[in-house]
Design goal:
Elements lengths: L1 H16 L1 H30 L27 H10 L9 E10 L2 E10 L3 H5 L5 E2 L15 E4 L1 H8 L9 E4 L2 E8 L9 E4 L5
Parallel strand pairs: 2-7, 4-6
Antiparallel strand pairs: 1-2, 1-5, 3-6, 4-7, 5-6
């Protein structure tokens, strides 16, 4: 114990004698700790924390691998083929991230959203915080039901938590949509969900 105390005192004296080295060491430690904290926070959010959906342990994502093991995506006709011939899963839903131009009351802004099939929320076992989610009937005819669901965070930040938002219209990439619901808290990365069939 005595030698440890001597080593600490000697180290402190050396750090005081060389303030430039001390500053570089402290900055390096700070950056290292900050980077590790940021990476752990990301891994915790993406991989460790369970999804905010019912029976998260039973949900899997199918993603095709292209040449060189690059991640690809399925076309909508391929999804329909898988869905109609599926004998393994309880059901299949599809989604696609997409940049969108959100216009309301003359204000335009760029947001990220998802184009999703009518059974998307049903497959995740999610119920709306306000209003309702998509229905499978809205998938029957392409573009016939231009509806959107906004995330809870989007509802709070971009619409000021407007209690009368459900049933109101917005423009997404220049197309008219009706907001039918607000998703529950927890899907903060998702801004807008829109009917898969509607071209945006």
């Amino acid at each position: 114990m005595h030698s440890l105390w001597q080593d600490l005192r000697h180290g402190a004296r050396m750090l005081v004698k060389k303030p430039g080295f001390t500053l570089v060491a402290i900055v390096t430690l700070g950056l290292g700790i900050g980077a590790n904290t940021a990476i752990f926070s990301l891994v915790n959010t993406v991989a460790l924390r369970p999804l905010p959906v019912a029976a998260a342990e039973r949900i899997v994502e199918l993603t095709p691998l292209g040449k060189g093991a690059s991640i690809g995506s399925f076309s909508y006709p391929v999804y329909k083929d898988f869905r109609d011939k599926n004998e393994v899963f309880d059901g299949l839903a599809a989604y696609c991230p997409a940049p969108m131009s959100l216009s309301r009351n003359g204000v335009n802004e760029r947001v990220w959203g998802y184009l999703a099939t009518g059974n998307y929320f049903e497959m995740l076992g999610m119920r709306a915080f306000k209003g309702r989610m998509f229905t499978q009937e809205e998938d029957r005819v392409p573009g016939a039901s231009p509806v959107a669901v906004v995330s809870y965070g989007c509802w709070q930040r971009r619409f000021g938590g407007d209690p009368n938002l459900v049933g109101r219209g917005v423009k997404l990439n220049g197309h008219d949509f009706t907001i039918v619901g607000v998703a529950p808290e927890g899907l903060e990365t998702v801004k807008i969900f829109a009917d898969k069939y509607t071209r945006l």
